[in-house]
Structure formats: structure tokens, C-alpha cells
Automatic annotation (TrEMBL):
GO molecular function terms listed in the Swiss-Prot or TrEMBL record: electron transfer activity; molybdenum ion binding; molybdopterin cofactor binding; oxidoreductase activity
Domain of life: Bacteria
One of the GO biological process terms: anaerobic respiration
Biased composition (Low complexity): 766-780
Record domain Molybdopterin oxidoreductase: where: 51-507
Lineage: Bacteria, Pseudomonadati, Pseudomonadota, Gammaproteobacteria, Enterobacterales
InterPro entries per UniProt: Asp_de-COase-like_dom_sf (IPR009010), CT_DMSOR/BSOR/TMAOR (IPR041954), Molybdopterin_N (IPR041460), MoPterin_dinucl-bd_dom (IPR006657), Mopterin_OxRdtase (IPR006656), Mopterin_OxRdtase_prok_CS (IPR006655), Prok_Mopterin_Oxidored (IPR050612)
Assigned keywords, A-Z: Metal-binding, Molybdenum, Oxidoreductase, Periplasm
Protein name: Molybdopterin oxidoreductase
Cofactors, names only: Mo-bis(molybdopterin guanine dinucleotide)
This protein's record includes keyword Transferase: no
Cellular component, GO annotation: outer membrane-bounded periplasmic space
Keyword Nucleotidyltransferase: no
């Protein structure tokens, strides 16, 4: 490719790129006030040796045929041609669908993929399975907000209204007096948004609010969750205990007659039931500051003082996603809302509840008048689902029953899983258990850009292009810029985009027309653009045609000022604008949730002691939060991500006092252990971490010393070796990966070298290589 500058976009920002023989020179979009350093991750990855250059088949699967296989994750691979890969994949899908129909195929394919809206890999998988075999077993909800997205509709309304369209940053900058954030407002998190984020504005808004005199209070185990610009206060809490703290705040507000009883009576149901619980009318336990202090580690006097800081002020309460990624994660989500209601704030400018503010660049933003359409996924002919984080349970317990949102469902029997655009060996909990779950499959097919751990467990690995190697349109409903993602580099090796792969497979399965509708990728992008253009036209807004947009590289879209609309309208007139809850009001007591009869999520919010608590053997909480140096596991081999590691290992942080007691010094290699396995990491000491807490971000590629070990050791620093694989509750069955308990010690001896970015053993001479293209058959 000639060295020309191309416009492009990613989940972490828009940019232009100059390809200098495989090395990229990136210039952030000139309209971005605070570009993300994550852009640097693109610079060195195009021709990295860990990229996938050709299709691969796992030796055990090729030699023995499809079927459960404990060697997944430890086997070697054979490079094959596309012709061979296509015939193997098509034949296997036909076989499985022929035996048991779409019920035997898991097509959830959870994952973030890349920013382009057409090549969105998960949508491509869904469309392919719908059009070729009539459907697939799907997954619902997300790892992000598994608990919140299920409980919020019962108690206040759709999550998007409370998060994405919640109180805007603009309002907060102008009106809020107190910004109380459980889990903080880390700028590392709001630098990303799915589909793209051309303007990073959070730092500016926080600065503006602080200069005006807004007081930021961050309740978190880590001081770093609140940006310096906020000049705020840090309340260092024990992980997983925010519910107890909020219950005590409510008890204090009630007892001091600071609760807004008029608001609670007119706009809410169930306050009296909660007050009875606060007062311990049933069980004799008063939920006051002294009670909460014992649980959450914040002194009772400080809790009392916090209630005083909130009283009589315009307060915005935010609860980070992180809090609900834990057992009983529904409770802090619910209690944050109740706290805002008890303060009488919902619906006031800059006041109320903004779920997950700052967790992503989408939240607190204006919305485009018309969103760029998604690729239509076709119709799924079956209705079989799992909550997304129950993947191992599903594979290990086919036919068993489970609870979800008031229903009792049954796990299907899955033979084939198809994954593109996600990395379960990054995102799921208890990786040894996940490996065993994947060992039950007949076949796992994975499309990847590189040898991730998930690719290393696959039977067929199909090399996908990176976003930089193809054309697409980048856009998010909260980003006023639509970006023409122009091609920056030629595809690596024989990599193909997911759409081309599925088009060819569809041709072989006789469903090509249904899948492609006769369009190539460029024609699809123009088609989707035209749909947006027509919708804008209906509102009297004209935008240039696709060809002009493509040439310009960027298009500014009109937005609407509707942030906070749900609660603002509700406050103005609750009869005219009731909430979409059974009562039409905020539900502090929910008869619906009570009727579901889940002991772990009853009819009003409660404090429930979690299963995992530090003890003598495992005295530390582990926080496994989002990484500052990348998006999840994406481009972990990228320049910025690697620059933040030490000796190639991920860096964990802990308090110097804890370190001293454990005989650990700055820069040591440590082993972090619990009954599920061991993780090696480099350690840094910081007083910004609460004592009793170790923090290790997610996303370092899983690199087990012995992949088949019952309790594996990861040399690189993937915390999901350690996390526990249970649901948040019988209500939502969300992911609980954020916290677990561990022991931490200095690693003695020579630590093993990290090998995460070295490809597995690859043979270029398949046993039947002499056969004509397409003749390679599993078990042949
Ligand atoms: N312990 C713990 N675990 C967690 C979390 C936590 O807080 N703690 N957070 C959870 C959360 S919120 C989330 S959202 C998940 C994220 O989990 P994932 O979304 O699975 O993580 P990503 O690393 O973004 O995975 C995307 C994969 O798609 C690949 N890819 C990119 N572009 C393309 C493409 O065009 N085609 C194909 N075929 N592949 C492509 C990338 O190489 C990458 O491997 O992790 C969850 N896991
Ligand atoms: N740079 C970067 N940004 C990202 C992502 C990424 O991978 N990289 N992922 C994006 C995605 S998909 C999502 S869903 C969001 C997730 O957004 P979050 O889930 O909110 O993000 P985390 O960083 O996991 O957690 C935020 C902070 O919550 C604190 N915390 C953890 N447990 C507790 C607790 O029990 N109580 C309190 N009070 N605080 C606690 C931790 O100190 C942590 O730093 O982030 C998005 N932003
Ligand atoms: Mo997420």
C-alpha cells in the first residue's frame, strides 16, 4: 500500500493514520480535546508475530474428529488453506444442525469486536447462523451490567434511560453541588465507548464542575478512581460493602428527619417497608452508622458526616458498573437510586441518580437525532437463551434448570460454539472451569485477529482482518461524528474480514442470497448510510450522499437535548409521565421482585453477607477492574499496553503497609493465589490503594504454565484465573468478576518467562496435506 493518510476510528477515539511499511503513525482527530493514549496500541501491531496469518485446525480435532476433548488449550495446530477451512466449517455446521438443529449451536459470541458498525463481528455471527441454519442459542445482557440491566426496569426504567440518557455531564458541570460516586469516575474508563468516541469531554466537565465549587466524593477501594481534576474526597471502602454504607446513610437521613418524605410519598412506593428494615423491626438489627462501619471499614463518624454533606444539597448519586459485577450486585444499584430519592433529587437539574456515570464515554452525553443503523441480524427461529455469564454452567450442566428474571429455564445441550469478536478466556471467570466447559464441545470455531487464548482453545481458527485492514463506518448513538473508517493497511497474511468468511460459508450452505442480499461490504455500508440519510431527511435534515461522506472522512450529525428526560418528565407530572414500572413510580419495594422469591434478591434492597470474604488463608480482596492501558484484552501486544507492563508482566498494586507485612517490595514478582489457581504479576506499592486490597486489572492474555492443570498458574497476570464463577443472584445471574479473595506472596526463584505473545506450535504439513484442497476431513 502506498503511504497515504487515512481517516479511521476505534472504540477509544477517531484518528488518521499513515502506514509506513507496517509501522503506523497515528494522529488523533483534531476535534478531540483529550485524546486517549490507547491509540498508541495500533502503532506496532499490524505485522506482529502473534497475528494469525492463515486458517488453522487443531491437530486432535482433525485426527480424531469432532467431540469432547480435554486437549483443547494444550494442542498444536496445523496451517490449512481457506478452501480446506471453509469445507471443514461448513460440513461441521451442517452435521450439528442436522443432528439437533439450532438448539445445539451456541452463537452468543459475546465481545466488543471493533468499532466499525458493519463489520461488528457478533452481528455477523448472528446473521450468519440465522440465515444458514435458522437460529442459535443466544446470550442476553452483558458482562458490563448483567445485574443492573435486569433490576433497573423493575424499579425505575430501562437502563439506557438511567445511564446513557441519565443526568448529563453538562448539567453536572453547571448545577450539581455534590457528586457522590460509588466506584469513582476514572477517566481511564470514560475514554472508551462502543462504536467510537471522537471527543473525550469528561475531564473538561469534571474540571468545570470542580472550579464552580461542586464537591466530588468518591467511595472506592482505590483513590485513583477519582481524577485529580475533581479535587475531591476519597472514602476508602472495603470492596463489595457499599450496600451497608448506603443503608446506614438512609437510616441517618430518616432519623434526623432529613429524608424528603414528600418526594418519597408522591414519587415512590415502599419507603415504609425499607424504613422498617433500617430500624430492624423484624430482626432487631438497627442498620445505623456503627453497624455499617463494622462492615464497610469507614468510621461511623465519617458516615454521619457524609449524610450531613448530602443534606440540603443538589446531589447526583452515581453507582459504577463495578459494584454490580459482584455477588448481590443488584443491591447497590437499587440503593443508589433509593438514596437519590430519599434526598428528593431525581428529576432536578444536576441532581438524582445517574447509573454508571463515567463508566463509558456514552454516559451523560447527548444523543444523535438519528442513530447509524446496525446490520440486521435476521430472525432467530428458536428462543433458547442464557444470561451471558452462565456459559460454563450451560456447557457443564446441560438439561439442568436455572433461575432468571422470575423464570425457570433449562440449559441446552450445546455441540458447537461459534465465536467472533470476543475473548471468553479474557472475559469469563474461573478459567480452569471455562477450559473444562469448552472441553465438552464437539467443536469450537473462532475468528480472531491474533492468537488469543480463546483462539488457542478452538478447533478451527479463522484469521480475521483487523479494523485497520478494511473499510467500515464508525459511529455511536452518543457521538456526533460519524467516521468513514478508511482502509489503512493491506490484510495481514491471508486474513479475511468476517463478512467475507460468512459470505463464502453461506454460499457453500446454500444461503448466500439470504446472508448477503447481493451486496458486498462497501454496498452494505452505503445501504446502511442511506437508511440513516432517509431518516434524517424525514426530519428535514439533509446530509451528503455516501460517496461524499466517504471522501470527507467525517460527518457531523445533529443531536437532541434529551438527557435526563425520563425522570425530569416524571417529576414534572407523575400522572402524565409515569415511570415504566408496575406502580408507575420508583419502586423502593417491588412486589414483582418479592414474587420471584429469590432469597438473594428480595422485595426491598438489603445487605447480604457475600460468600467471599477475606480470612486468615486468603486475607486480601482482589479488585479485577478495567485496564488503563487497553480495552479489555484487545491489542494487549500493542505498544502502550506493553509499555505499562514490567518484565512483560501485568502490574498489580497494593498498599505499602500490607506489602511490608508480606515481605514484598516495589517491583517484586508476586504470586497471587486462591483455590482456583495462581497468577504471577509485578507489584507496585501505592498509598492510593486501601489496605487489605490488591488491584490487578483485567485483560492480560492468559498464559498458563500448564494449561491442563486443575489449578493453573498464569505467568502473565490474568485475574480471571482467580475469580469465582457464580451469578450475582437468581434474579439476573450477572457476572461477578470484579472482586474475589486471595493470598499474595513474593515469588522466590527465577520467574518463568511470559509467552503470551508467542504463537502455539504450528505444523505446516498436515497429515493429509497431499490431498487436494478441501480433502482434509476431521477424523479422516
Ligand atoms: N474479572 C473481570 N472480568 C471481566 C470484567 C471485570 O471487570 N472483571 N469486565 C467484563 C466486561 S465489563 C466486559 S465488557 C468483558 C469484555 O470482554 P470481551 O469483549 O470479550 O473483550 P475484548 O478483549 O474486547 O475481546 C474482543 C476480541 O475481539 C477481537 N476482535 C477485534 N476486532 C475483531 C474483528 O473484526 N473480527 C474478529 N473476529 N475479532 C475481532 C479482539 O482481538 C479481541 O480478542 O470482560 C468482562 N470480564
Ligand atoms: N481503559 C478502559 N476503559 C474501559 C474499559 C477497558 O477495558 N479499558 N472497559 C469498558 C467497559 S466494557 C465497561 S463495562 C466499563 C466498566 O466500568 P466499571 O465496571 O465501573 O469499571 P472498573 O474499572 O471495573 O471499576 C471501576 C472502579 O470501581 C471500583 N470498585 C470495585 N469494586 C468496588 C466496590 O465494591 N465498591 C466501590 N465503591 N468501588 C468498587 C474499583 O476501584 C474500580 O477501579 O469500563 C469501560 N471502560
Ligand atoms: Mo463491559
Amino acid at each position: 500500500m502506498t503511504a497515504t493518510r487515512a481517516m479511521h476510528s476505534s472504540h477509544w477515539g477517531a484518528f488518521s493514520a499513515l502506514n509506513d511499511n507496517g509501522t503506523l503513525h497515528i494522529t488523533p482527530f483534531s476535534g478531540d480535546p483529550d485524546p486517549s493514549p490507547l491509540l498508541q496500541n495500533f502503532e506496532n501491531v499490524l505485522r506482529h508475530p502473534v497475528r494469525l496469518a492463515t486458517p488453522m485446525v487443531r491437530r486432535g480435532w482433525l485426527e480424531d474428529g469432532p467431540g469432547p476433548d480435554d486437549r483443547r488449550g494444550a494442542d498444536d495446530y496445523i496451517a490449512i488453506s481457506w478452501e480446506q477451512a471453509y469445507s471443514l466449517a461448513a460440513a461441521e455446521l451442517k452435521r450439528v444442525a442436522g443432528l439437533a438443529g439450532p438448539e445445539a449451536v451456541f452463537g452468543g459470541s459475546y465481545g466488543w469486536s471493533s468499532a466499525g458498525r458493519f463489520h461488528h463481528a457478533q452481528s455477523q455471527v448472528h446473521r450468519f447462523l440465522n440465515t444458514s441454519i435458522g437460529g442459535y442459542v443466544r446470550s442476553v445482557n452483558s458482562y458490563s451490567s448483567g445485574a443492573a440491566s435486569v433490576i433497573l426496569p423493575h424499579i425505575v426504567g430501562d437502563m439506557n434511560e438511567i445511564a446513557r440518557r441519565g443526568v448529563s455531564w453538562q448539567e453536572i458541570a453547571e448545577h450539581s453541588e455534590v457528586v457522590l460516586s460509588f466506584g469513582g469516575l476514572a477517566l481511564k474508563n470514560s475514554q472508551v465507548a462502543s462504536g467510537g468516541l471522537s471527543e473525550h469531554t469528561e475531564r473538561g466537565f469534571i474540571q468545570q464542575a470542580a472550579r464552580r465549587g461542586a464537591r466530588f466524593i468518591s467511595v472506592s477501594p482505590l483513590a485513583s478512581d477519582l481524577p485529580d481534576e475533581a479535587q475531591g474526597e476519597w472514602l476508602a471502602i472495603h470492596p463489595g460493602t457499599d450496600s451497608a454504607l448506603i443503608l446506614a446513610l438512609l437510616q441517618i437521613l430518616k432519623q434526623r428527619q432529613w429524608s424528603d418524605e414528600a418526594f418519597l410519598a408522591d414519587y415512590c412506593v415502599g419507603w415504609p417497608q425499607l424504613v422498617a428494615y433500617l430500624n430492624g423491626e423484624q430482626d432487631g438489627q438497627l442498620r445505623d452508622a456503627a453497624w455499617a462501619a463494622e462492615i464497610c471499614g469507614i468510621p461511623a463518624a465519617r458516615i454521619e458526616a457524609l449524610a450531613e454533606q448530602l443534606h440540603g444539597k443538589r446531589v447526583i448519586v452515581s453507582v459504577a458498573h463495578a459494584l454490580q459485577r459482584a455477588q448481590h450486585g443488584e443491591q447497590p444499584v437499587w440503593l443508589g437510586l433509593v438514596l437519590a430519592a430519599a434526598l428528593g433529587q431525581p428529576g432536578l437539574p444536576g441532581g438524582g441518580y445517574s447509573y454508571a456515570l463515567g463508566a463509558l464515554g456514552h454516559y451523560g452525553k447527548q444523543h444523535n437525532r438519528v442513530a447509524f443503523p446496525a446490520l440486521p441480524q435476521g430472525k432467530n427461529g428458536i428462543d433458547r437463551l442464557i444470561p451471558v455469564a452462565r456459559i460454563s454452567d450451560m456447557l457443564l450442566h446441560p438439561g439442568e434448570k436455572f433461575r432468571y428474571n422470575g423464570r425457570t429455564l433449562t440449559y441446552p445441550t450445546i455441540k458447537l460454539a461459534w465465536w467472533a469478536g470476543g475473548n471468553p478466556f479474557h472475559h469469563h471467570q474461573d478459567l480452569a472451569r471455562l477450559r473444562k466447559a469448552f472441553a465438552t464441545l464437539d467443536t469450537l470455531i473462532v475468528h480472531e485477529v491474533a492468537w488469543t487464548s480463546t483462539a488457542r482453545h478452538a478447533d478451527l481458527v479463522l484469521p480475521a482482518t483487523m479494523t485497520l485492514e478494511r473499510e467500515d463506518v464508525g459511529g455511536a448513538p452518543t457521538d456526533r461524528h460519524l467516521i468513514a473508517m478508511q482502509q489503512v493497511a493491506a490484510p495481514y497474511g491471508e486474513a479475511k474480514d468476517d463478512y467475507s468468511i460468512f459470505s463464502e460459508l453461506s454460499r457453500r450452505l446454500g444461503s448466500e442470497q439470504a446472508f448477503t442480499e447481493g451486496r458486498n461490504a462497501r454496498e452494505w455500508q452505503a445501504h446502511l448510510y442511506q437508511q440513516m440519510q432517509e431518516k434524517l431527511q424525514q426530519q428535514g435534515i439533509s446530509v451528503p450522499d455516501f460517496a461524499t461522506f466517504w471522501q470527507q472522512g467525517i460527518l457531523e450529525l445533529p443531536q437532541s437535548d434529551d438527557a435526563g428526560r425520563l425522570l425530569r418528565h416524571f417529576r414534572r407530572d407523575p400522572q402524565q409521565h409515569p415511570l415504566p414500572t408496575p406502580s408507575g413510580k420508583i419502586e423502593i419495594y417491588s412486589a414483582t421482585l418479592a414474587s420471584f422469591d429469590n432469597a438473594d434478591c428480595p422485595g426491598h434492597p438489603v445487605w447480604l453477607t457475600p460468600l467471599q470474604q477475606p480470612d486468615e488463608q486468603y486475607p486480601f480482596y482482589l479488585i479485577a477492574n478495567q485496564p488503563a492501558s487497553r480495552l479489555h484484552s484487545q491489542l494487549d501486544f500493542g505498544r502502550f499496553s506493553v509499555s505499562q507492563k514490567r518484565g512483560g508482566r501485568e502490574v498489580c498494586s497494593m498498599h505499602p503497609r500490607d506489602a511490608q507485612q508480606q515481605g514484598i517490595a516495589e517491583g517484586d514478582v508476586v504470586e497471587i493465589t486462591n483455590p482456583r489457581g495462581t497468577v504471577l504479576a509485578s507489584v507496585t506499592l501505592s498509598e492510593k490503594v486501601r489496605t487489605g486490597v490488591v488491584q490487578l486489572p483485567t485483560g492480560a492474555w492468559y498464559d498458563p504454565v500448564d494449561p491442563l492443570a486443575e489449578q493453573p498458574t498464569c505467568r502473565h497476570g490474568n485475574p480471571n484465573v482467580l475469580t469465582l464463577d457464580i451469578g450475582t443472584s437468581g434474579l439476573s445471574q450477572g457476572c461477578t468478576g470484579q472482586i474475589t479473595v486471595v493470598q499474595i506472596r513474593r515469588f522466590t526463584g527465577e520467574p518463568p518467562a511470559v509467552r503470551a505473545f508467542e504463537p502455539p506450535v504450528i505444523s505446516r504439513n498436515p497429515p493429509q496435506a497431499s490431498a487436494a484442497a478441501g480433502d482434509v476431513a476431521p477424523g479422516a
